[in-house]
């Protein structure tokens, strides 16, 4: 099963106006509000045995709940044809959590590729031209993160479906 480690957005309802404004652009597929999350680590395809190991490792994780400042709205990747629109977060603790998870899950930490804490809010349709983000109002000042979860990701024609398999609460 495709899986990743991430945090659901506690105040996801604050994103409603942003997602609605993105829906007016025919080039963009806004992410459903219930799919908003921050990804720390993509685990790829794992079996049930590896899922159970991942849950045990998450159970040992210690972290505190965070309220992160919203920095900006941008497209990724920046240098080539953009594929997604993201809300970038300003929260140094998220890099620490990401690195701790990479160590916990024995993932090589690529120091040249820094972790960019972000929440994907829209995806460009195929063969679409980028929109001017200046026309999109970002009314969100902070994001609340209260859990770290193991997610199952199922790809469908109408988009991804995320299922929380296990969530760790802060200490």
TrEMBL record:
Pfam families: LigT_PEase. Its EC number is 3.1.4.58. It catalyses: a 3'-end 2',3'-cyclophospho-ribonucleotide-RNA + H2O = a 3'-end 2'-phospho-ribonucleotide-RNA + H(+). Keywords: Hydrolase, Ligase. It is an enzyme of class 3 (hydrolase). The active site is at 37 (proton donor), 118 (proton acceptor). A motif (HXTX 1) lies at residues 37-40. It comes from the Archaea. Residues 14-86 form the Phosphoesterase HXTX domain. A motif (HXTX 2) lies at residues 118-121. One of its GO terms (molecular function) is ligase activity. Belongs to the 2H phosphoesterase superfamily. ThpR family. Hydrolyzes RNA 2',3'-cyclic phosphodiester to an RNA 2'-phosphomonoester. This is RNA 2',3'-cyclic phosphodiesterase. It comes from Cuniculiplasma divulgatum.
């Amino acid at each position: 099963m495709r899986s990743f480690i991430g945090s659901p957005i506690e105040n996801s309802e604050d994103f409603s106006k942003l997602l609605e404004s993105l829906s007016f652009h025919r080039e963009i597929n806004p992410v459903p509000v219930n799919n908003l999350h921050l990804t720390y680590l993509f685990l790829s395809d794992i079996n049930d045995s590896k899922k159970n190991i991942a849950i045990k490792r998450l159970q040992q994780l210690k972290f505190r709940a965070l309220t992160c400042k919203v920095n900006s709205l941008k497209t990724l990747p920046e240098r080539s044809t953009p594929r997604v629109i993201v809300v970038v977060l300003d929260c140094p603790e998220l890099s620490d959590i990401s690195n701790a998870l990479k160590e916990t899950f024995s993932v090589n930490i690529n120091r040249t590729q820094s972790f960019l804490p972000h929440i994907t809010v829209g995806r460009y349709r195929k063969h679409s031209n980028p929109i001017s983000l200046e026309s999109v109002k970002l009314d969100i000042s902070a994001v609340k993160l209260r859990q770290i979860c193991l997610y199952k990701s199922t790809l469908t024609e109408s988009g991804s479906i995320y299922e929380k398999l296990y969530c760790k609460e802060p200490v």
